[in-house]
Amino acid sequence: MLKKNESSQSPFKKLSRKISDLTRLHLFVAAGGRCEFCNENVMMHNLTQTKGVFAEMAHIVAFKEKGPRGNDGERPEDINDISNLMLLCPSCHKFIDDNWRDYSRKTLEHIKEAHEIRIKTVTEIGPEKRSAVLVFTSPIRGQEVSVRKDHIRQAMFPRYPISSKGTHIDLTGLKGSEETHDFLKTAKALIKRKISLLFDTDGEVEKAQHLSIFGIGPMVQLMILGAELSNKVPASLYQRHRDTEDWTWKTEGRLVTYKLTKIKTGGPTAPIVLTLALSGTIPIENLPDAYKENASIYQISLDEQTPNTMFLNQKADLEAFKAIYSKTLGLISAEHGLLETISVFSAVPAPIAIMCGRERLPKVHPKLRVYDFDHANGGFKFQSIVGD
After folding, report:
1. pTM here?
2. Does residue 250 lie in a domain region?
């Protein structure tokens, strides 16, 4: 029998499902108000966009030993500690617990840690990391192209878009073939109008003082785009990588080097040609007859590599091209004086095409008389003058 003042309580602490308000607050903050599994915003209904709390605080190690992962390792001293909790949307909570064999304690702890580190990192980014986003898309030989928003955010990090909308120049809806004069005339006008708004005094570039550029389309259109972009505001160009199918610059691997070669010297009044043989070769015999017979021909090519479509991987590779391209334009001007135009034949990735237009100095360098390869006829065809 128990004595009068002796406690009848069990020596084991009774577990409670109640999670403290402070723990609840810290979990929501650490998760950024998003499901730690699917990243869905749990502070808003995904269909009606009604504000609310559509989240559940899920135990990694189950509240009861017979629950999901209840005996996966040593049980936590405090089952309701934030280290054992994940903020989940109801569907992910059910999915994880129904498939508990596929989602071990270690796996969920890793997912939780990665999500919360990402939220912490992003929220620590200051306003100086904002950037205006410009996306340019145009069909390539009739095939539509696109750029995924999640790839944009991943590629830009640690910068982030100044707005969710950004500026998108899409030439898909323009009538006619992308190689015709009328198409390019309309495209130029559209590009000029959109860029003007982007660089307006109230535009996103003025607010962010930085521009992130994602472009994919025919070479001549990308050069036209580049020519409309001011080089007075810092900008980052991005490349879609064929192997990973994303836009994030790689940080490892052999850096690319380029070489400038003067292939042919013409007479004092001969036209000036610049070939950019990077993604593919540009045989002289494929040039129009006027250039094969009498022209001064300069070529920028890969040094110690054959031309290929996979060479541009790191941001430093793009910066190295910028240096040799500027040097080449300066050398041509020094050797031939003030020129109205030079003829450009290119096999290059999209960001290099944009850079060719952007890095040309209007008052110093000649305009670019751009040719593109005509697959139907197997030769180069004049497209447009860039820099008008």
Report:
1. 0.72
2. no
